[in-house]
Specification:
Layout: H1 13-27, H2 34-44, H3 46-61, H4 66-77, H5 81-112, H6 115-126, H7 128-137, H8 143-150, H9 157-186, H10 191-221
Helix pairs in contact: 1-9, 1-10, 2-3, 3-4, 3-5, 4-5, 4-9, 5-8, 5-9, 7-9, 7-10, 9-10
């Protein structure tokens, strides 16, 4: 069997996680507390948005499950959870990058700056947007770890931001979608609506799997292989 034809196990993380979370969103007793959460959000309006984004930033900067925050965003804000989660992710990704770039990069390169490491750094810099976007799409490393490591590379600030935005959008949308499913399950909606949302989520899982395969293939072409 051609080793390049094998599907890396990391590609299955997103679809498996989406399925598990969707089942949880379907089964948990959301009717008990989701209406209370949404009522609090509606009564506080912009304050609720700000609190959510600030908490999201803290979660992203620390080794905590940021994906769970996107699910909460869907539960609390519905589809508005998507732009709010994206904003929290981007704002939380900036400080680790800046710290790594301005204070950690040079000392670390002086210690481990072998020709191979420097060559890899140049490859990443030349393909910054593609590399960062595909890295965000492929859940090989936790998002927080990616932020710190990318700060050690030659990737410039704005390519880092735009590529992060592009790479995070599909996964964030999926997490918010799951949260919105929980919100629908807590409301008086017809089963057909829930099945429609669930079917869309299943189709989205297939798309994420397909994108993950393409991302891994491109990373290998750039010389970043597991073996």
């Amino acid at each position: 069997m051609n080793p390049r034809a094998r599907i890396p196990w990391q590609i299955w993380i997103w679809p498996a996680l989406l399925v598990v979370l969707a089942v949880v969103a379907w089964l948990l007793p959301w009717r008990d507390w989701v209406p209370l959460l949404r009522a609090w959000v509606e009564s506080h309006e912009r304050t609720g948005w700000l609190v959510f984004i600030l908490v999201y930033v803290v979660v992203v900067m620390l080794p905590l499950p940021a994906a769970a925050m996107s699910v909460v965003g869907g539960l609390a804000f519905g589809w508005w959870g998507f732009p709010l989660s994206i904003a929290g992710s981007i704002l939380g990704a900036i400080p680790p990058y800046l710290i790594g770039r301005h204070w950690l990069r040079e000392p670390i390169l002086r210690r481990i700056g072998s020709p191979r490491v420097l060559a890899a750094d140049r490859v990443i810099a030349r393909n910054a947007v593609i590399f960062v976007a595909l890295l965000r799409l492929t859940p090989v490393l936790p998002f927080t770890v990616q932020n710190w490591l990318l700060g050690l590379t030659a990737v410039r600030f704005w390519p880092y931001i735009w590529a992060t935005l592009a790479g995070l959008a599909p996964g964030t949308l999926a997490m918010v979608w799951i949260g919105e499913m929980g919100g629908l399950a807590s409301a008086e909606v017809e089963d057909a609506t829930l099945w429609l949302v669930g079917g869309g989520l299943a189709a989205f899982c297939v798309m994420v799997l397909w994108i993950g395969r393409l991302a891994t293939r491109e990373l290998r072409r750039a010389g970043f292989d597991e073996g």
